[in-house]
Amino acid sequence: MSLIFGFFDLENELIPNQVYRLFTRAQADSKNEFHYLSGAHFFLARSGVKEDTIKNGLFVSEDDRYYGTIDARLNRVGLLVDKLQKHNVSISEEDSHNSLAFKAYLLFGEDCTSHLQGDFALVIYDSLKEEIWCSRDHLGISPLFYSVTNSTLIIAQLPPIVASIVNSPINYNYIANYLAFTDSGVSETAFKAVRSLPAGHDLKFSSSGLRASSYYSVDKVKENEALSYNEAATKLLELMSTSVRERLNSAKHPSTMLSGGLDSSTVSCLAAKELAKSKERLQTYTYVPMDGNTYPVLPGVFINEGPYAFKVKEMYENIDCSLVDLKGVSIFPYLEKHLKYSGSLEVNNFYNWLWSQEFLKRCKSRGSNVLFSGQMGNLSISYNGRLYGLELVRKGRWKEFVGYELKTKNLKGYGAIRYLTYQMFCAVVPSKLRVFVDTHISRLGGHSYNWMVKDSFLNRNGLNKRSFLVANSVFKADLPLRKKMTAFIQKLAVHSKTYEQIYGVKELDPTADRQLIEYSLTIPSKYWSYKGQNRALTREMTKGLLPDSLRLNNKKGRQLVDSNHLIMQDLGEIKRRIANWKEHPQLEEIFEFDKVLSALDSLSLNLNKYDPDLSTFLSRMIAVCLLVEMNSERVN
């Protein structure tokens, strides 16, 4: 699968074989072939079979001025082809998406990004100007990382490659933000000397220096109050259908993640419907808790997604549904390999990530090259209007506020009074006062209290255990929050690229489509939970697409109800590792290992208790320890 790389030194002449060895050493475990173009001051490489790589991944203009390496999966390709042909650009059936992107650059220059739709990472060297230009797609679905020192620029799609070449130490501020559940910013990585090029940004490097600039942002998108409810639902379905259909174009034996929720079910049903036209089948994978255990009864939720997955299968005859549990699965082999390639911690709970690795492994074994997910569905198609009540309070529409909250939250009695009072409080008070109440009075304050982390470590990095509350208390309306949520897409990109390298399978998310998200942001907040129906628009748009028993189900799915049992499977190994980590000077300064061991000792007494925080905090601790350990030879 594709992986692009660039090495530029504008002052010193490069020796291609030396650069090639640096690059391949950084990918020592990879089975990919790497091929390259090089000159006195540039080295461009791309993974893949030689013929395909030279033909579709590495490019040289006819006048030998421009050299490029490109990783692109484009949407609305017909529109781009029409634009190119109108300017007499030669197009053939053999032109790949990468080739079309290069031709767009040769025609439009740096403005090519306004003509490209889809996912792309572009690295272009102008040999006449001795200038490097790079660009990342509008939402950041294709990753691009870089490091610059004096006259040298190194670019790759996975941060450990860059970190290995520049010998970058760990970025402990990034780790502190991760452990405190706060955002370190879109450019920060786990390595001090490695930066991420943000979504919708260009990067230019020349003898004049380095310059990054934004060419796209969702900040200018505004709600369209003229939209009707039915119009919004119809358009959402149309855009979702297009998004799924275009991503199926590159799919071989396509597979999907299928839970009992609205997002993955919508993706799966649209894919099955499209594939049925050509009499193709769709493989779906559903995570289920391990058999033979007793699990707690959780009011208002379901803990087994299997029955809902089979309701979808009953509706679409071309679906093959596989139920997958995690019996006997350890977090360590998967996580160690993943961190070695990705060098990234952007996962909330790595125990709740294990099932995706089992899905990917099965995709690889059946020859599937694409696994569809619906991770950004809660932004683009099934947002729940969580802050609309606060908007009503701030506008003085008290009666509407009370009716909206009572219906959407199904509140009664004293609980309703307490919740309504709290919401009114949040709508009008300063953020600092809200944080104080959340910390010392409301139950919300315990959500991010990561007791496994030492206060001294967080304090040294300008944080504390309540920093999460500070970061999330500033939003008092839906649209600003949702715009902020779009940044999460670029955080996930490195994981998808890592899956390509490990499994040869692309994870594609049709709910993270630019046109879909842009339109979704224009929909007025009141429609997302219209007339008291939570996620009303999604339920409306999927009439006839999803089985009604799933479409109208108001229960929430609760994954990882067997998290304590998963931890028990790893208990001996976790304790053995902690014994070593306690002797590691950097890790000992970060974690309360004795407290963790004490909690693990009492775990067997609480096996059937549902405590998602324990697996979240523990998996984050394990991930950080592994990442620091495997990069400990690089000192600050």
UniProtKB/TrEMBL annotation:
Q: Where is the Glutamine amidotransferase type-2 domain?
A: 1-208
Annotated GO MF terms = asparagine synthase (glutamine-hydrolyzing) activity
So what EC number does this one have? 6.3.5.4
- Going by the record, the broad EC class of this enzyme is ligase
An example Pfam family from this entry, by short name, is: GATase_7
Q: Which reaction is recorded as catalysed by this protein?
A: L-aspartate + L-glutamine + ATP + H2O = L-asparagine + L-glutamate + AMP + diphosphate + H(+)
UniProt pathway? Amino-acid biosynthesis; L-asparagine biosynthesis; L-asparagine from L-aspartate (L-Gln route): step 1/1
Q: Which residues form a coiled coil?
A: none
GO BP annotations listed: asparagine biosynthetic process
Q: What is this protein called?
A: asparagine synthase (glutamine-hydrolyzing)
Recorded source organism is Roseivirga pacifica
